[in-house]
Design goal:
By secondary structure, the protein is an alpha+beta fold. The protein folds into 2 domains: about 5-80, Nucleic acid-binding proteins (OB fold (Dihydrolipoamide Acetyltransferase, E2P)), CATH 2.40.50.140; about 80-240, de novo design (two linked rop proteins). The protein is built from 6 helices and 8 strands; from the N terminus they run βββββαααβββααα. Strands 1-2-3-5-4 form a 5-stranded mixed beta barrel. Strands 7-6-8 form a 3-stranded antiparallel beta sheet. The chain is elongated and about 60 Å long. The N and C termini lie far apart (about 55 Å). About 40% of the residues are buried.
């Protein structure tokens, strides 16, 4: 039976059988994969720590006929700060869910893996809503779905004004002539400019950027709608969390 290593993050964990868990892992080398961690729900299991959500670890995995099985696990980071703060926990869950719905199995993306790992570390000190917003914009950019911001997604003309029309269907902001063909929502120019900054700024220095409550709400809601439309799946954690609210 083939055995392989996976340097990976746990992005989803669900109960399976009486004592097992099925782990969805996002690995540096192989992208997204699934494996059963047997017996990890037992109190004395040695692999229990490696089956926890957000865990970063080195996994030794046996390749099976229907599903692979975790043989050994060596945890590297468990991100304890994500478990003792509600907003940080919601943001981390939002990152994991977004990564899960936007990727397919066996498609490696080392840049996306690095971005995800970096953002989980940044959540210890940075505003969790800020990290989640930056992650959404940068992950969409890496996957080829970057929304156009400040130029028309239909005709390419630069757009100015106090408010800009954003359409998830069109893939970004629209000028006055093109917006007639699409549904969408109005965004303040400050929110659009701030999203551009979140894409371009050094990810480790985004805490220097300043936003206010209405910008946070507007940006998070816009990104949620954009991602949900793009992948035709709801972001459940974004809807349940305290970081974002419908407007």
């Amino acid at each position: 039976m083939a055995v392989y290593h996976a340097d990976a993050l746990v992005i989803r964990s669900r109960e399976f059988g009486e004592s097992d868990r099925v782990l969805t892992l996002f690995s540096r080398e192989m992208g997204k994969l699934q494996a059963v961690a047997k017996g990890v729900r037992k109190p004395k299991s040695r692999q229990r720590a490696g089956a926890q959500l957000f865990t970063y670890a080195d996994y030794l995995i046996h390749r099976g006929k229907s599903i692979d099985t975790v043989s050994q696990c060596s945890p590297r980071e468990s991100f304890p700060h994500l478990w003792y703060d509600l907003d940080r926990s919601f943001a981390a869950t939002g990152i994991a869910e977004l990564l899960d719905i936007s990727t397919i199995p066996a498609q490696p993306n080392k840049e996306l893996f690095g971005l995800t790992l970096t953002c989980l570390f940044l959540l210890e000190q940075f505003d969790p809503a800020l990290v989640l917003s930056a992650y959404a914009l940068r992950s969409m950019t890496l996957l080829g779905y970057r929304p156009l911001l400040g130029e028309c997604a239909e005709c390419g003309v630069n757009i100015a004004g106090e408010r800009l029309f954003f359409s998830s269907e069109a893939g970004g902001t629209l000028c006055g002539q093109c917006q007639e063909s699409y549904s969408g929502r109005w965004l303040r120019a400050g929110s659009v400019a701030f999203m551009r900054q979140l894409i371009k700024a050094d990810i480790t220095k985004i805490d220097r950027l300043r936003w206010n409550a209405w910008m946070q709400q507007e940006i998070l809601e816009t990104l949620r709608l954009f991602v949900e439309h793009r992948f035709e799946r709801p972001l459940k954690s974004w809807r349940m969390g305290s970081l974002s609210a419908d407007v």
